[in-house]
Design a protein that fits this description.
Layout (H helix, E strand, L loop, with lengths): L16 E8 L5 H9 L7 E6 L14 E6 L10 H13 L4 E5 L6 H8 L8 E10 L4 H4 L2 H9 L2 E4 L7 H14 L4 E4 L7 H4 L1 H4 L18 E7 L2 E2 L1 H9 L5 E10 L4 E7 L2 E8 L7 E7 L4 H11 L3
Parallel strand pairs: 1-4, 1-5, 2-3, 2-4, 5-6, 6-7, 9-10
Antiparallel strand pairs: 8-13, 10-11, 10-13, 11-12
Helix pairs in contact: 9-10
């Protein structure tokens, strides 16, 4: 059976669920890639597993035929994460999912995750088709770290994001850095020309052979996450001013916030650039929620600044 765009469909229940892992460093554009690709016609029933650092309900997938599970209590790179194992078993048992896509945190080690999916408990229930690593050419040099290199090294396919703002020189340097770590990876440019089949058809990427070294313990990053949430409204002007001049210790920030007039706004900050979307739909949880990522974060200072931006 074939879906639209020539994507091959494996009927749920006919065997192991094919899994594609989408990884990439903080702010690299993983969620944007998923929204773009899954928002196109594809005729498949997708199980989407989102692994969040901090509070859930900040990143919301765009409209698509998906069943979404958010895992926030620990990272999916942990080998014995019971929530991940349970989510995979439930999606296999449901019989109404054709393919599973796992979006990791920006700090996950995909090697440990693929080992988890190869555990005996999931034998015959899931199989890893591919690992897709998203790389932002405009910020990769600042992001280069043990985590970034582990993600690129694990990638069968590397997608370059944010090419609308990247210079040709930045693209060249990013590709050279990827090739130095993972010479065998296929590198594709993101954007509208990127085929939806890279997510939904294993033939596009090539099935992955799980001949992995034994992993005894997942590495945990020295990065921190500070989460703040609650039913509070915020004044846009001082909040926007602060987000545009975040301390260097904060590498990335994102959130969804209720403003003084009762409307909602979503924001992302990465690489010193603020993206602010006004008039977004109110989240089901009804809370303003923030997540800040970096090293050496001062939670009290962050909370004090947000308090000063609240509506009395």
């Amino acid at each position: 059976m074939s879906g639209e765009n020539g994507v091959g469909i494996e009927r749920a229940g006919s065997g192991p669920l094919p899994v594609v892992v989408v990884t990439g460093f903080l702010g690299s554009g993983k969620t944007t890639l998923l929204r773009s690709l899954l928002g196109r016609p594809h005729g498949m029933r997708i199980g989407l597993v989102l692994n969040e650092l901090g509070q859930a309900g900040i990143d919301v997938p765009g409209p698509t035929q998906t069943s979404t599970v958010e895992l926030t209590e620990g990272c999916v790179c942990c080998l014995r994460n019971p929530d991940l194992l349970q989510a995979m078993e439930e999606m296999h048992a449901r019989g109404d999912v054709d393919r599973v896509i796992i979006e990791t945190t920006g700090l996950a080690d995909p090697l440990a995750l693929t080992w988890t999916l190869a555990r005996q408990e999931l034998h015959g229930k899931v199989r890893v088709d591919a690992v897709i690593a998203v790389v932002d050419p405009t910020t990769f040099e600042a992001a280069r770290s043990e985590e970034w290199e582990a993600q690129v090294r694990a990638g069968d396919l590397v997608v370059l994001s944010k090419l609308d703002v990247a210079t040709p020189e930045q693209r060249e340097r990013a590709v050279a850095a990827v090739r130095a770590i993972q010479p065998e990876a296929r590198v594709l440019e993101g954007g509208e020309s990127l085929p939806v089949g890279i997510l939904l058809d294993a033939v596009e990427v090539g099935p992955r052979s799980l001949s992995l070294p034994e992993v005894r313990e997942a590495r945990h990053s020295t990065f921190q996450v500070v989460s703040v949430g609650g039913r509070h409204r915020y004044r846009l002007d001082p909040l926007e001013d602060w987000l545009e001049a975040l301390p260097e210790a904060i590498f990335r920030a994102k959130g969804i916030v209720e403003l003084a007039d009762g409307s909602w706004a979503a924001f992302h900050v990465v690489g010193g650039r603020l993206q602010l979307d006004l008039g977004v739909a109110a989240p089901a949880h009804g809370e303003s929620r923030f997540a800040f990522f970096g090293r050496g974060l001062e939670k009290d200072a962050i909370e004090a600044t947000l308090l000063s931006c609240r509506v009395e």
